[in-house]
Amino acid sequence: MMGTRFSLVDSFTDRPFAGNPAGVCLLTLPRKNDWMQSIAAEIGASETAFIIPDWDGWMLRWFTPKVEVDLCGHATLAAAHVLWEGGFLPADSKARFQTRSGVLTAARRGEWIEMDFPATAVGEAIAVDGELTKLLGAKPVAAWDAGWTRLVELNGERDVREARPDFAAMAAGGWGSAIVTARGETPGVDFVSRFFAPAVGINEDPVTGSAHCVLGPFWAKRLGRDELVARQVSARGGAVRVRVDGERVKLSGQAVTTLKGELT
What is the pTM of this model? Predict the structure, then answer.
């Protein structure tokens, strides 16, 4: 009997061994949560996507090595890439996913894949003090609550690159995740960011699509433009094109498959 199809895809990059790796498991029948969680832990990528055919497209779920999450950009990009690459979807058809965050779609735009995600607005300001500086290993300019995460603006791109968070203190202090960001200083890059989520087993995520659902509206308002180019400046790094469209954010990236196989 044939096992479950599995791929490892590097997302938000046009070359292998960069961007953010995501596992993608193509299922033919629903599987139990414990099984999917065990597979995600075994694969060890920051997220693994599980997709199964549905009457209106595909069901899509995402698991970190520790928990199921409500939204994941790079694993959605990887899942769409696998469907087109494997011939499960015609090249000119949209990928349509039923998820815990509602219906998400992805479409091919030349060498890029554009995803349609919900926008997230920042909320109340968070006090900037010595404790926050110590926690993030960088001096904040300002910080806000953003619902499922927290957004922290730093003084410049160098500060974002050199931030050294205390991950144990973040997890213990109730900081499930945090985005640090600053205006871009590299030509052609509007803003940069990094994303930390130690509470769900990911100290630093290499490139985070869902974080740009917060970053896109934030920087669009700051810079006065709806179309932006972003760079997540983790060790692996990755590029994200962002287009803010009302209450939606269109995120575009490229993807490269590095491994294919079967889960036995």
Answer: 0.92
